[in-house]
Design brief:
By secondary structure, the chain is of the alpha+beta class. Helices cover about 40% and strands about 25% of the residues. The strands form two sheets. The chain has an eight-stranded mixed β-sheet with strand order 2-3-4-8-5-6-7-9. α1 packs across α9.
Amino acid sequence: MILVSHNELVGVTTKAFQGLRLPYGEADLIANMVADLEMVGLHGIKHFINALNYLGNKNNKPCHITFESSVEINIDLNDESILCHIPTILGYISDKLLDESRVKLNIHNCCNRWLAFGELCKLSKNGISINACWNDFFEPIGIKYLLNSGDELPEIYIKSVEGENSKLSIDNKRRLTIEFSNTHFKLPNSDEYQQHLSSSRLKRYQEESWSKGISVQVSDWEKLKQSSQAILVPCKS
């Protein structure tokens, strides 16, 4: 393990994203999304490295709305990472909440859902309560993020869906469902989950990351630095 600073992480990730030369996504914003997750010990770097498999897709397609009402919206991401799209999508949802007290968002065919962390935290700080749920694509687990209005960090609940996950369609495994509300959500019974990552625990990890540096695996850091060097390769005309 090595220690890196927040600025180092943001700087290297910014270069790594810029090197992809994608037609959408703000590099500094995306780098901070990765850092936000890494700062609380939720492996932002690993998730970003995994996202490169989708961000490097040469057949990039714009996401599109498949259904919309005043209180619900379905969006198809075409099996792409949420990294480039989630800030814009959440901005659209915020506008809807000016007229509605509750809105449900279903994002289909999306990858790297953990990386929505930082953007969801921003919304809760701005007075919006959030209940986000998804089933992991690679592991038989279900994840729930819950942030009530004003919360700085979420309560995260993880449970096994061993039998259930084997029966889920690919679409369900690539779905992210988020409920937004102007009122608070009730916290679930943590006994129903195998793991509960409390906001206080995440806060302690975050404070240590600020004071002592971010502890990352050498192999992950080297992969990230290698990706950042792509910006040095000139585009072919």
